[in-house]
Amino acid sequence: MIARRSGTIRSARPGISLIEVLLATAIFLMSIAALGILLNTGSDAALEAYRTNLCSQLARAKMAELEAGVGDVAVTSGGSGTFADRPTYNWEVISTPAAVANAYDVTIRVWVESGNRPTEVSLSQIVIDPTLLNNAAPLQAPTTTGTPP
Fold first, then answer.
1. Is 139 a member of any domain?
2. Rounded to the nearest 5°, which phi and psi values hold at 138?
3. pLDDT tens for residues 113-145?
4. How far apart are CA 21 and CA 37, in angstroms?
5. Residues 102, 129: contact at Cβ < 8 Å?
6. pTM, two decimal places
7. pLDDT score of 31
8. How does pLDDT run across 68-100, given as a tens digit for each residue?
9. How many structural domains does the chain have?
């Protein structure tokens, strides 16, 4: 017999229905899938940032070699190759004479082609030929015309 209290019928078993449980489970699984996608995207971005930073460091190191006149590449000729300690990273030096004597507009390009897309960094700078740094002509005082004030 069902007991009545003030005009309402009380069910025999209170709780949540099966549809509510399935709906909550579906929402939970979709949120886990979304978190997995975000984790994968963040991991890819971190790897891209690491590669870009390493390419930048290697480009600056190659530029320092050119400025010092050490290494296997001359400022006047340019060249290309791979790094000895990072064989998957490639470099290329493009050198063109600048408007100033004994200076060259040098562009260093460093790239790596691993993963689904390559990472590339370019560094440009005007560099004086290091073989001529100690052979500069002595400075001469400017000639004055007219009378000093």
1. no
2. -65, 150
3. 987 789 999 999 999 888 877 655 554 555 666
4. 25
5. yes
6. 0.70
7. 96
8. 888 888 888 889 999 999 999 999 999 999 888
9. 1
CATH of the domain at 79: 3.30.1300
Q: Which residues touch 89 (CB under 8 Å, ≥6 apart)? A: 54, 55, 58, 82, 83, 110, 111, 112
Query: To the nearest whole number, what is the mean pLDDT of the chain?
Result: 85
CA–CA dist 53, 118 (Å, integer): 14
Beta partners for residue 135, in sequence order = none
Containing structural domain, residue 95? 18-131
Kindly state the average pLDDT of the residues 46-64: 95
- CA-wise closest residue to 95 among 105, 85, 86, 87: 105
Beta-bridge mates of residue 110: 91, 121
Amino acid in position 136: A
CA angle 10, 16, 18 (to 5 degrees): 125
Closest CA to 108 of 128, 137, 79, 135: 79
